[in-house]
Design brief:
The protein has 213 residues and is α+β, with helices and mostly antiparallel strands. The N terminus is likely disordered. Helices cover 19% and strands 41% of the residues. 34% of the residues are buried. It folds into 2 domains: 46 residues; 164 residues, Jelly Rolls (Sandwich), CATH 2.60.120.260. The protein has a 5-stranded antiparallel β-sheet with strand order 1-4-11-6-9, with no helix packed on it. A 5-stranded antiparallel β-sheet has the order 2-3-12-5-10.
Length: 213
Amino acid sequence: MQSKLVGLTFAALLASNASAWIVNGNFETPAYGNGGFTDGLPGWTKAGEAGHWNIFPGYGFFNAEAPEGTQIFYGNGTSIAQQTAAELLVGTSTLSVLAARRADSFAGSFRMELYAGGTVESGNVTGGVLLKAINFDHTSIAPSSFVPLTLEYTADATDANLGKLLSVRFFKTTGVQMNFDKVQLNPVPEPGTMIALAAGLGLLARRRRATQS
């Protein structure tokens, strides 16, 4: 029972770290009432109209609940981007989002991109290196639905981009509006986290041996 608890606690810690690297990745700030939206995106830079949108079941434009909280992202402009405080480390960095399709003909598709280095301004990354990108086609899912979209980039010890800050960018490829929720970045578990896990598991093992002796 204790080992399961430690495992669950560690999993929760990793999930928390993944969320923490992205500012306002669940698009809950600021909060709006049912159907409310705004052209504004704290934590992100943008090119064109983009903001938060409170959706709910029975709402004609997006007849569903938000996967997390009550709000999702909507973007009628070209792109949004954010530079994080996470550095590219040796190992596999993961970027994920819940891609969505609104219920009417205004739905659109987008590309999710992960960069190392450069600067972020007005929804774009300048001078950075594109590490990996993945496309989402809104016509591949049902209206008013969400689907997980994930990309991974693995860096070895010789990667020229090690130590550079990671940035994320979403670029609209087709249609009028791109929609998604729950942007998360996991730039490889930090050494301190792994050391803490090892110490916790070691303590648990010693306690189990003590109770069995």
